[in-house]
Amino acid sequence: MAIKEEFLPKWIAWEITRRCNLNCIHCRSSSTMESEQGDFSFEDGKKLMDDIAKISKPTIVLTGGEPLLREDVWDLAAYGTEKGFRMCIATNGVLVDDEVCKEMKRVGIKMVSLSLDGSTAEIHDDFRKQPGAYEGVMKAAELFKKHDIPFLINSSFTKRNAFDIPNVYKKAREIGARAWYMFLVLPVGRAEEANAELLNAEEAQYWLNWHYELEKELILKGDNTILVRPTCAPHYYRIFNQNAKRDGLDLKRRNLVFGTGGGKGCVAGQSIAYIDCHGWLRPCSYFPISDINVFDVPFDRAWFESKIMQDMRKIEEYKGRCGVCEYVKICNGCRVRAYWEHNDYMHEDPICKYVPVKMKVGIKHKGLLNKTPEKGDDIKDVTP
Ligand code: SF4
Ligand code: SF4
Predict the structure, then answer these.
(1) Whose CB has fewer CB within 10 Å in the chain, the N or C terminal residue?
(2) Residue 175 lies in a domain
(3) 74 lines ligand 1 (CB under 6 A)
(4) 237: part of which helix (H) or strand (E)?
(5) What residue ranges in 34-110 does DSSP mark as E strands?
(6) What is the tens place of the pLDDT at every residue in 20-29?
(7) How many domains does the chain have?
């Protein structure tokens, strides 16, 4: 089979346990301390990594739940390093101590991702539903610096904490993070209950414009202290291009260290994937459905045989505005938001309200569109 390089896995998040010591409102897996551990054995884990190595040597992020709760976490990481993967780990920080840092170094962890959702204990702990969580992150950051372990900060935002976005960025910088990823929470897992709190399209546009100004300033100053990128807001790539054009700037964006290898907004199922603790393979961590299990079908086949994964690579079959959008190749639209809104992951991304040129001029395209949008259509161009 001819394998297209752009459709090989470059980054895989692997849920090695669903148990978690926190109870965050936005958690994709609704994890708690009582959640099932995940029944794969160390031998199953090794076999999975052997299968992945047959087609690629991606970055593998051990995640959870809280991955540090799994007893063989270091054995899994060491095996991955031995196989030639770039092993990373995502933790909420609370369990990090000197011993954990020494183990991370021993097994070759290349990058740790920490979550920080507020610039103060009050805001972060309210979001994480855990008094002391903020202190845990600050302490973990100190320890990583002491042990010279690179870390990045993931920050999740809803209406509840979005006002704090600029301060969280400053805090991530202050504590020495190599990168800061601004994530606009999606309607999945426990976040379904908190849907009313999710940022809407206009609010997302506001914060993505803010992010553009931040990134522009860093690029123009040649400031490489910290890499910044919104995650899971693929239309940021459109906004970035449009704003740079408006400003008459040719801004060269830096590549992310341990990025997802796409150079575009969303590469779910194209070069990234998520494997849950039961072995279900999904295009990304937030994708709610799966049609293949890597403990039944080896990963090197599952990656190609899953219909869902195949669909993710058929950009030309996207529907609605994404289906006719001139930015689709650099954006891709969020397939998860499309699924929640339209019950169809190939449909348009509802958090982006851009009206593609082909729609503006009412061109017929593949039978998807036969009229110019009219007053009353649920389409609003909020492009600056
Ligand atoms: S489909 Fe959506 S949630 Fe998944 S990686 Fe793409 S942008 Fe993120
Ligand atoms: S319409 Fe779809 S492809 Fe175009 S910018 Fe918006 S989300 Fe991206």
Answers:
(1) N
(2) yes
(3) no
(4) helix 236-246
(5) 59-63, 86-91
(6) 765 555 555 5
(7) 1
